[in-house]
Design goal:
phosphomannomutase activity; globular; Alpha-D-Glucose-1,6-Bisphosphate, Chain A, domain 3; five-stranded antiparallel β-sheet; TATA-Binding Protein
């Protein structure tokens, strides 16, 4: 059983002892800390917060605890109930709210839940803001409202439809073009809210939908992280149904993966590559992804005459870099599409519409599209170090060893070689260095990772 408190929120497993798991007490304390921070930060008399949740089994319980804690602080709540992470992000500014909370543990299994915190723009809090909320949580420095000053609750279940309308109104989305293509698509909604939102969007675009695990019961039929080893059912069904492709989302619908028409994975890393390919073909500009994402985005960006830049790992860091560079699209290699014309958050509905436009205009099959992109392979390994070792010192030594290469130290150490790269990041909670590599073959990526692990061991003297 686990409880993880970080600057991006609190997540943990349901049940067990307070302080060790995400119990009702922990949910109330963290919600109270967020509400208290909002009152201090905004200095407004009447505050409003948008709440939405995915369909996981503990969602309704956590939702009620969080909603009524905020009401107890004198904060008004707009309750979206079953929703998606990007839908809540869109709702916050539309409601002129002061913040938002998404109740989801994203791709984690059913025993997990979490509180993800948003600011008044519907964007994730930065590190300093998150640290202040953790401090308030630990101190339990809460002051609840008197009876005449309690907050109110307004229920609004229309926001998935509003979100879909927002997607349909994007300048690069033309519903008629997509309708004429007469696509057939299989959707795996992992029995969460993606099973509501994605089929509804597709049908608005004239797509024939085959639903798989789209009943939002919260009983996940497989591990909800959209990786190849978890997705045999949809891969088989795409072929059986002779569908154009398949769509897979995680429980809160901010990660998007495609299945090619031949039943093979399109590759989560290539979700962003494909969407960027379409956007860049229409709009000149720059792109951003994190340091651990595929080089293929850089290649496609430069093909269109744009500039690519890398940010530290984490959505808030990608968004910050996108704003600084005025990027027209960005995201993360886990299938997260951030399209500023819509909003600064990973959004599978936006990604789906952009991908449909790309396919409708290009023609051909999804497998052919994937084959047209630069082919890269990743290796993700880690090395366990002895407690007490100077991990920062080890990373510094590795950076010095490769000082003649293209080096970034904004988030661990990334070494860009001409034909491949390696990214070394330390864990914040244990003596581990994570080693991510990418190369033009799996053998080369694995070999590079093993070589770097050997060099780290030599530097560390182990």
């Amino acid at each position: 059983m686990t409880l993880i408190k970080s600057i991006s929120g609190i997540r943990g497993t349901i049940g067990g002892q307070p302080g060790d798991n995400l119990t009702p007490i922990d949910a109330v304390k963290f919600a109270a800390a967020y509400g208290t921070w909002l009152k201090q930060y905004s200095k407004k008399d009447n505050l409003k917060v948008v709440i939405g949740r995915d369909a996981r089994l503990s969602g309704e319980m956590i939702q009620n605890l969080v909603v009524y804690t905020l009401v107890g602080l004198g904060i008004d709540v707009i309750d979206l109930d079953l929703s998606t992470t990007p839908t809540v992000e869109i709702a916050v500014p539309l409601e002129k709210a002061d913040g938002g909370i998404i109740l989801t543990a994203s791709h984690n299994p059913k025993q997990w839940n979490a509180l993800k915190l948003l600011n008044e723009k519907g964007e994730f809090l930065n590190a300093a803001e998150g640290a202040l909320i953790l401090e308030i949580t630990e101190k339990e420095d809460f002051a609840f409202a008197e009876v005449d000053d309690l907050g109110s609750i307004t229920k609004n279940d229309s926001y998935i439809d509003i979100h879909i309308d927002e997607v349909l109104n994007l300048s690069l989305v033309d519903a008629d073009t997509i309708r004429k293509a007469k696509f057939k698509v299989v959707v795996d909604g992992v029995n969460s809210t993606g099973g509501i939102a994605i089929p509804k969007l597709l049908r608005e675009l004239g797509v024939e939908v085959v639903e798989l695990y789209c009943d939002p019961t919260g009983h996940f039929p497989h591990n909800p992280e959209p990786l190849k080893e978890h997705l045999k059912d949809i891969c088989d069904l795409v072929v059986k149904e002779n569908a154009d492709f398949g769509i897979v989302v995680d429980p809160d619908v901010d990660r998007l993966a495609f299945i090619s028409n031949d039943g093979e994975m399109f590759g989560e890393e290539y979700t962003l590559v494909a969407c960027a390919d379409y956007v860049l073909s229409k709009t000149k500009g720059s792109t951003v992804s994190n340091l651990s994402s595929s080089r293929a985005l850089r290649d496609v960006t430069e093909k269109h005459g744009g500039t690519y830049q890398a940010a530290a790992v984490g959505e808030v860091n990608v968004v910050s870099k996108m704003k600084a560079t005025n990027a027209i699209i960005g995201g993360e290699g886990n299938g997260g599409i951030i399209y500023p014309e819509s909003h600064y958050g990973r959004d599978s509905l936006v990604g789906t519409a952009l991908f449909l436009m790309l396919m409708a205009e290009k023609g051909g099959t999804v497998a052919e599209l994937r084959a047209s992109y630069p082919s890269y392979f990743m290796s993700k390994k880690k090395i366990q170090l002895t407690p007490g070792l100077d991990v920062d010192g080890i990373l510094k030594a590795m950076a010095e060893k490769y000082a003649d290469e293209d080096i970034s130290t904004i988030d661990g150490v990334k070494i860009d070689f001409p034909e491949n790269w390696v990214h070394l990041r330390k864990s914040n909670t244990e003596p581990i260095i994570r080693i991510y590599t990418e190369a033009k073959s799996q053998q080369e990526a694995d070999g590079l990772a093993d070589r770097i692990i050997g060099e780290i061991k030599a530097v560390a003297g182990i």
